[in-house]
Amino acid sequence: MHSGLNISQTDDRPMYLQIMEQIRQRIAAGDWEAGKELPSIRALAADLRVSVITVKRAYLDLESEGVIVTRHGKGSFVADAGGLAGEIHEQKLDEHLAAAAGIARLLGHSDDELHARLRRAKRNLDRK
Amino acid sequence: MSTGNLIEMRGVRKAFRFFTLEDLTLDLAPGQIMGFVGPNGAGKSTTIRLMLGMLGADAGEIRLLGSPMPEAQALAKRDVGFVSDTMRLFPQASLGWHLSFVASIYPRWDSAYAAQLVKRFNLRLEQTVRGLSSGEHAKAALLLALARRPRLLVLDEPTAGLDPVARHEVLTELMDVLRDESRSILFSSHNTVDVERISDTITFLDRGRIVESRDKEQFLDAWRRIQLRVPPGSTLPELPNIVNRIDDGQFTTLTTNGFTESVLPLLGERVREVQRMSLEEIFVATVMHHRETRS
Amino acid sequence: MSLVTRKLIAKELFVNRWFIAGGMFSGIVSVLIATLGRAGFNVGALMWMTTIIAMGVMLAIYGVMNERKEQSLQFVLGLPLSIAEYVRAKLVGLLLCYLIPWAVSSVAAIVLIVTTGVPDGLLPYTVLLCVFLLTNFALVLCGVLHAKTESVVAGAVVVTNMFVSLYMFVIASVPGLGDHMQDPVPAWNRAVFTILAIELCMLAVALVLPLLVAARRRDFL
User: Fold this and answer.
1) Residues A72 and A90 in one domain
2) Could you tell me if the ipTM is greater than 0.85?
């Protein structure tokens, strides 16, 4: 009955986000394949020793992202692939860019400086 | 009332010589865990005793599993397991005796589960209660409450004085109870980490009044620390729901208990960081705020 | 009587089993000692009195006060019972705990008087004394069930024990009693029955009062 998911006490992020991320990772990696049934909200909550409400929120948000599908009375399932992995990665890209923009502002860098840094990063990647 | 809620309180009042509990209103639905927090002396234990019929309210209504309290307490408590950290079992009797005693009273006693718990909690049936360490005693009391498979567990500081391993075991058992969506748990605790993690609803009590009783995620979402840099010459707009403000040169920290995204555009580029707050931080901020507004 | 009440009464008897056994043993032994001549009688009588009184005190204190102090009251009140049922269980349970060794000791004393060389005239006095000691215990129990603090309990115990000495002195001087104690034949006269009636009345009050007052309390903790 163990989901294999894990909530860290020292992770700053709220628990529901941690749960969402871990589920997304497993889906993106292919461990949880399309159509696979997710553990019931109560079972996962008991497993992770977190509140039902937290798991509920994670599932709801994942559903609105299209990562999972909930069938009333039947449970939640991993949504059909069809570019899902792509969606997850697009999201990751947005997250990273938002973080980068935030740091750049903190340092007081201009937009041009930020673009230059991005180009440099790409070049380093291409070289490898 | 009586919508299947396991606990209901409406406008409950209880006066003591130096302290009054006032206007207590709360609901505990089935399948929920309610975390009950508040500073010492806020009235948590007293509220719990009112719920269980050990004290009679001066005004208001209390229903436990649908039965009015304290009048119908004998009936209601058939499905309740109560454990408090100040509670003691009969010192002269053994743990095994206690198991038989409780088993003979509760028809839903699960002896297989009880045996499992004895092993899991590392207890011995032959030991007299007098000889148990405080941690073992706490686990024994919990065992006796859990093995009755009650619909409602009421716990007053269930993990106080337990070592981390014991705490882990206890929390695992508690969360296991919640696999059944008809059962609920009310627990009061100073351990804000646990409360934050496993509660569905958080009820905050301070000085005899319920300050908040709310969905945990919503509660945590409402509180933020906003770190701002306010350049000289610029002033901050008046914002509602600011509980605390600390100014340090150009840097200001605002604590808000009514955070919404719409606040951010009002603050614009001054915002450096928006931080979530742990339950412990919220706890301290709330109590400090109350003390300030009173004086 | 509900299941929980019966279980609690059984628990009372179980938890106090050594008191009960010790009381019975001591009561019988003291009566046996009392058969050993004049000196034996005095020693035995004193031991008999001490046993019955001490048992009463210990049951009252350990039976009620300690439960409150040791906070096993919270455990009991968490069980499916009302405050009234708790008071009833306590009353009946502790009364039974006392009754058993009391009955054994009283019967032993009566047998001693009737079968040995001790003048049978002592019988009415002894019966009155036995009933008095039972009533005394009931009064202490009644007080303890109503008391809210330990000091009240201690006070009740002290006061009622003072009564014992007072009683023994006063009763012996009641006309119709003291004068017949050394007779070979017991004198069941009016004085005896009047005092007996008074004692039984007080016993009844002591046992009924908690059911009417303490049981109606809304605040027990």
Assistant:
1) no
2) yes
